Amino acid sequence: MTTSAWPARLSEGTDPVITLRPLAYGDVDAWRSARQRNAAWLAPWDATAPPGSSARVSSFRSLVRRLKRQARQGMTYPFALEVDGRFAGQVTVNNIVRGSAQFASVGYWLDQEFAGRGVMPRAVAMVIDHCFTVAGLHRVEIAIRPENSNSLRVVEKLGLHEVGFAPRFLHIDGDWRDHRIYAVTVEEVPGGMLARLGGGRPDRAGG
């Protein structure tokens, strides 16, 4: 991990303003409220712990503590997503691999209240640009359940190529689920992912 890659704060746009910054303990009330209001909306796509796994998270505080530890180790970048200053979801860079790979995967969820406004494609584009230009990664991958039409629209808008199909790839909503795999390399977006999407370049600040 480059020293400037994390912690990071990214902001872009005017209508709406999208901000990505480190998930924090202080997000607990907004995070719980969003998760409760969107329980049915998110449940079919939420990662779950398989039977016998030690990866279960007992509280929001333990979740943030685990993500902070992994971020210090350069394994993840856990972004909270804000829309016009309001907590709206998360975009998380996971499974960061250095060495000869320089690879990571990206996952995300959005409060249904903010759906249909083009928020998530812009947010994911901002994060991918951060991964390529600041973190020095070469390839970013997104795995999506074939039934998740909303998430599929995100990668379609971003122009990511489908590179494979992974049977029973991740434990989602209580069982092992098939996923379609999409990926992009830095060579494919020389001008940046956000610019390809049609936005500007995000303002960046460490913190």
What keywords describe this structure?
single chain, 207 residues, alpha+beta, Aminopeptidase, 6 helices, 9 strands, 28% helix, 34% strand
In the CATH scheme, what's the topology name?
Answer: Aminopeptidase
Low-confidence stretches: none
- Structural class of the secondary elements? alpha+beta
* Tally of contiguous helical segments: 6
CATH superfamily, called what? Gcn5-related N-acetyltransferase (GNAT)
Radius of gyration: 16 Å
Description:
The model has no long low-confidence stretch (mean pLDDT 92). This protein is of the alpha+beta class. It has helices at residues 28-37, 39-42, 60-72, 119-133, 149-158, 193-197, and strands at residues 8-12, 18-22, 77-83, 86-97, 103-110, 139-144, 161-172, 175-185, 203-206. The protein has one domain: Gcn5-related N-acetyltransferase (GNAT) (Aminopeptidase, 3-Layer(aba) Sandwich). A hairpin with a 2-residue loop joins strand 7 and strand 8. The chain has a 9-stranded mixed beta sheet, with helices on both faces.
